Amino acid sequence: MPEYRFRIGDAFPEQEPVARFVTVLAFIHNDWRRTMQAMVDSTGAPGGEGARLLSFRQLVGYSHEATEFLTGSRKRYEEVDTFVSSLNAEALGQYDRVFTTLAPIERWMRKQRDITFHYPKMVRESYQADQEAIATALTAAADETSSITLADTHAGISLDFADAVAVHLLGFKLPEEQEELRRLVQALREAAYALGVFVVAAVSTYLGSCEPGAIATVE
To answer: Which end of the chain is less crowded, N or C, counting CB atoms within 10 A of the terminal residue's CB?
Structure first.
């Protein structure tokens, strides 16, 4: 596969909406790819369960943010909408697939985004266990046995009990609910694939539209 080299200001001028749009698409692609790779790499590794949980929660948040960005950008900028509409049929099909795959879990994703990127709030004035996310999670995890390991270095410290509690922030506590969780994970996988196809098509199309001489191909 070829490598393309360029001065960023020549290939992605900041005043162009489509240049900014494609740049954020690249952010999204990198975040999804790296997060999913981190999930794979954590399998079987020490502390891997906690690392997979963190990656999964991040991916859920990124998924919600990605759909918000895609729809919002097309609404705000005619140039972006025209650019997306000009992509080939496969890319547009995968674009639609991102939304159709994630639509059934949109509400759940939005809630998880807030929990992942905003630590659970504590409301002292009107505390009720069933109205505070962290209290609800602690209640659900109350009978589980977990651990804390302290050490002289940060690398050696392990607060495993927090991972055990964080699992319950996902909202799946009963055995029969685990199938629903697997369904959600599969939806995220399918959406990630579809988004990848769409982003690559968008980036390739954009590169082809750049001014002659702005992009150099390195074989």
So the answer is: N
